[in-house]
Batch of 4 targets.
Target 1
Amino acid sequence: MSYTSYSDDEKAIVRSGIKSVRAVLEGSDTAAKSRLLLCLDWFMDPYFGQDISAINDELVELLQEVVTSDNPVYVKEQAIQLLMDYTWGPYPILESHLDTIDEEILPDVKYIIAEYTPENKAK
């Protein structure tokens, strides 16, 4: 069983901006990616009152890129979960890469594209 946690280091990365977040999520250290994605859950959850509105749009794009890039499935699943829990579509990057999505996560990706639309958000 594996355990992932984050620290003040990951919080500092998020607070320093999208360039720092991108550097980690586009890097090769999958453990660092996983820690940062877990930390992003804290930042994105409105309950905790963190304001990342300045990077929100770029972050949504970056999370889509994580799902469509060469990452382990567990990292992609973390990114999908953040998209499902805290964002609304459209998700153009996911839509344009459907033919390259891993079979294990394809149902979740199709679901988020179909259900997390601006029209459904208004309901």
Note: The mean pLDDT is 94.
Target 2
Amino acid sequence: MARKKREKELQPNIKVRLDRRTVITVRDRSKLEFWKEKYPGLEILEESYEKVEETKETPKAKKSAKPKKDAK
């Protein structure tokens, strides 16, 4: 008997600038609070929710042989 596939949960992606040159991505609000303690001046750049997708390797198409130019 086939099993029903579970629906994937949405996980947040929160891009955060810690200082002028350091940008990180946080996936949990509790981790964001951790970084706020260490970097009180942090700035949230972007907050989005994306589905976690299974990584599947897709077969790459083989490159076709290019015809060689005749040297005359």
Note: The CA atoms of residues 29 and 72 lie 68 Å apart.
Target 3
Amino acid sequence: MKKFKIFAVCIISFLMLYGCANNKDNVSNTNTNTTNTDNVETQQKSISAIMNLNDKEYMLSIDIPEDLQKYITFETEEVSQTSMALVRFEKEDKSANIGTFTLYNQKDYEDIKTQGLPIGDVVVENKDEGFVLTYTGMQDSVFEKDTEEYNIVMEYANSLEDIFASVKID
């Protein structure tokens, strides 16, 4: 079991670093919301993905700032007993994985955590439902500095606090 968990974490890490997922099932980009903060109106679009865990479906949704909306989507992947929503950047012929939300069973999360393996930052922990949602961001820039793609991805990275505040998982 320990080798299996290490293998699963290695696969997750590989997917996060290289953004090699190709499955676009269970993905939707919906729900445009208008928010008013300090009298500045901004449009936010929710993107969502269905994540499966313990034979149950959960809907993960996050709000994306207006200027990033056309570049950011989710792709879902299932590895072992873990469900992931890869945050994908796409602009013309350039694409990259720029983050990963991973949904763990509470027990598996605790086991991996005690082994000191990379697991990401906790975004939501629901002990009643028995799951933990983590986020792992980019380890390094995915585009050359001073390119338009680099600037867009860095804008996403700088918006993470607001994006995390918008996370909903039902």
Note: The beta strands are 27-37, 40-53, 56-65, 72-79, 82-91, 94-105, 121-126, 131-137, 168-169.
Target 4
Amino acid sequence: MRTARMITLIGVLMTQPVMAQPSSWEWKDAHRKCASAIEGNETWPSEPVKACAAMHMCANEAVLSNKQQMLLLSAIRRIPNCQDP
């Protein structure tokens, strides 16, 4: 009886939609935010060191168009002490 309830509960949980949560720049899927941030629709981290790290992650992990790559490089160069990727 207990096993049947557990299986039912697991089945219900698996069929429920996952609540969408905003992605953080520290999460593994942060590369999904890159294009939006480059286009100005998403904010970069407010601290320059964290913004630089996020931008470098975007340069290395996100699939970007040539225009997005140029915009990203320009943004990187505006951050003090942030080197080109």
Note: Residues 53 and 82 are 9 Å apart (CA to CA).
